[in-house]
Fold these 3 entries.
Entry 1:
Amino acid sequence: MTHFFSAYNRGPELLTAGATVIVGATDNISLGVLRYFHERGIRVPDDISVAGFGGYDVGAVVYPALTSVYFDYELVGMKTAQCMLDAIAGATSHLGGLPLHFLERESVRRVGAPAPAGSASCTALV
C-alpha cells in the first residue's frame, strides 16, 4: 500500500505536469493516482489517461477499470530461481523472453482521440 499512498500524495505534482497520460511503474501506483483524480472530479480517461504495469485483478474492478500490462510475477520468480541455481552449479543461463499482455480497459483514452485543451503531449512516470 505504500506505493498507493505515495502516488496519491504526489497527485498535485502530476496535475501541474500537464501530461495527457500517467503511466505508473506498478498498478498500485496507478490506483493511487486514480483515487486522487476521482476525489477531485478529474475524469479518467476524458481529462487524463492512467495506465499501470502488473495486471493485478483489482484493476478490473475499480472504476474506471485500469489499463495495464500483465506481467507474470510467479513465472519471473521461478525463472530467476532457476538462473540462481544454474549460477551456483557453474552453469550460465538467462531469463529469456517473458510474456507480457496488454490489458486494454477503461482508463486510457483511445489513441488518436483529441487531448484536452491545454494539455502537453508527454508522459509522466510516477
Entry 2:
Amino acid sequence: MTTTHVFQDALGYTFVVKERKDGTAKWRKTIYKSLAHARRAINRWAEGGIEKIK
C-alpha cells in the first residue's frame, strides 16, 4: 500500500510523492530513501520551496 502526499510550490505547481510501506518514497520515476529525501529533492528543483497541501 502506498500513501500519496501532495506538495505545492510558490508558483502553484503540484508535486505528488508516493510513500511506500517499506519507507521509501517515489517521485518522477526516482525512488528516494525516505519522504524527507524526496521532499529535499523537490525543494532543490522548485526555486521557491514547497508546502504540503494534502
Entry 3:
Amino acid sequence: MSSTIQITIDAKDPRTLSAFWREVLGYVHPAPPGVELPDGKDPLEAWDEFLERRGVPEEQRNSASAPAGSPAMSRRNR
C-alpha cells in the first residue's frame, strides 16, 4: 500500500531550494507557458526571460516556486 504526503517548506530563496530538490528527486522544471525550450536550455533562465517580458519586477521573480506535485512540476521517470 502506498500513500502520498505533501510537505510545505518556507524558503528565503525558493529558486535555490527548487533547484536542490530538482537534483535530489529528479524533478524537471517546466518551460514557461508558450515557450519551447531547445535542448540544453536552462528552464529557470527561460523563466527569468519570460517574467521580464511580462513586466514582473526583478525583486519579485524569486518570491515563489511551484509546489511539488503541481502541474508546474513533473517527475522525470514516471
